[in-house]
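REQUEST FORM: STRUCTURE PREDICTION
Request ID: SP-0412
Submitted by: Lab K.M.
Chain count: 1
Length (residues): 239
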Amino acid sequence: MLSAVGSLVPSPTIDLGLAKSRSVSTKIAQAADSAHSEGSIISPATRAALNFQYASLRNINHCPTGMYITPSVESILVWDAVLFVHKGYYQDSVLKFTITFPNDYPERPPTVRFLTDIFHPLVDPRTGAYSLAPRFRPWRSKEHQIHHILHFIKSTFKEPTLDKLHEEDVLNKEAFNYRDNRTSFAALAKQSAELSQSPSALYDTSGPKKNHSLRFTPLKPNEVNEVLGALSIHTEESI
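STATUS: Completed
RESULT:
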């Protein structure tokens, strides 16, 4: 279960291009690592924009179902997030990621980095960098909002969006090429989903996950029932 939920923005329900892809994905990863050092020069306009964008996520249509967001305790330029995938190739995946904003946001777009390993065409397998290019190239600062990015991220774990991806936008060419063999792709996606639920993935707080605000801790069966009861969720065993 999540151990940090103070300022969490939940989903509306309670259930839980790039020709130079190597350099681009590296820049995305570096952006996340350097956000803290940039925090001291955040402009008032950027601070106001971030406050507005985060507050807007409480709109029932803005934060996708199964996605949870909270600002990092380290920097307002970093938002920590987790996505529970409910359907499709990646069903039952539990994916942690971060959204890192430049200090001149919204003039430049944020970057997204997955901290949970996932076999996906838009996720660089080395750095976790995620390509927003299919939907946000070019970036339009007066048009594109954070909730657009969140809904796009969720959609890319569904077949219709995966089918529309172009090779120049992807960061994992192997995953992209596997789309031609749906059986193999489905098997690899399922394997990724299973690995994302493993204790080593869920409870790891080392490396890039060290400062992630949304952490999971193992619960005993009786503790699970207590939590479900508090959330008014009933299992067959408790009825």
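NOTES: The longest helix spans residues 182-196.
Reviewed by: T.R.
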